[in-house]
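[Automated response] Your request has been received and processed.

Submitted sequence:
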Amino acid sequence: MHTAQDILFEETVTMNICVYRIERLPQHEWLSQRIHCTDKEGTHLKITVFYDDHLADYEFTENQWYRIGPCPTDVYGGSIGIKVQRSTEVTEIDDIEPSEHSGFKTEDASLIQLGASAGRVGIDIETVATVPEREIEAYKDANSGDVNPEHYELVAVGVGHQSRRSEPTDTEVILREGPEPDDEFRVIEDVADYVRQADATTLLTFGGTWFDVPVLHERAEITAETAGVGRERFERVRETLDSLFHADLKQGVYRVFDGGSLEETAEKVGAKPPETFWDVYRHDLNPVEARRTFDDGPWDNFHDSEFYNKDMLFFGDHFLKTREDPPESVPRRALYKMIHEYTRTDIAPMFDIADDERFDGLATWRLGTDL
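Generated structure:
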């Protein structure tokens, strides 16, 4: 009988699964329901059922075991699962005693559970845009949510490390020192150095499948070529990142909490991150006019004093332009401290989310795996 590990390599599978939560989608154009479930080794999966599938009206029951198959595989957007086809059959079966997940114990394992991971590093990137917001959104709409890394430049990367589960988290912020391509590449190179020194196996992100990981990978190649730093330095960065198993915590959030932002999820596990306020720093900047250019935003009103993710486009751009200012000038130091603080606050909560036992079965696989 197949397990989640086989999904990475098999065209079709037949599996024993236990239903965890049923997500009914009456407003969706073509999806009837998603079944969040677990295989016999405890790995999180999802079954996607379309309206035109013969199982569209099948009544799954939470906490019930089923044998389902044959099913085509579904590895997409940081999640792993199976789809229903015409030949798929579903049968209720007696409860199965979950077996110990063994993927982490083999040298060539391509998939492990988050709960089985040892050392962990967390990454959260902060960027500025190189094109207008509407162009960014138009590209994403036309490419199934994918981003174009040429539309962004890195300003800062928050990193963290945890040697063992539930241990204190060390956090750092790697800030870009200037607007040139070699400045940006050095940030990415410093991230790779941090990962190597941490000697970790698993990378934590929140939504990193769609943003942090592709942007970090592609910006490394783009800036290495533009700055002329040499192919060898770029390959060293890529090899370091590709050695990690990636755990996109946002995929677990859909299962455990039916979605939510990093801040909302962190609060639900008792680790709400502190807020950063832009108006307490002496940088003499005001984001109100920049906020008016967005079709929508997270702020309560344009004068809201809280620093939000979209504000980085404004403040980050000004920060990079202050390279010409004296290093100890009040505006430059204020921007440095504010961006540093905002970037830092999102790192530790990712580890608190990953420590929650409900996320233990989250499927992770090597970034360098060709799926």
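Summary generated for your ticket: The chain has a mean pLDDT of 88. Residues 113-273+346-366 form a domain with the Nucleotidyltransferase; domain 5 fold (CATH 3.30.420.10).
If you did not submit this request, please reply to this message.
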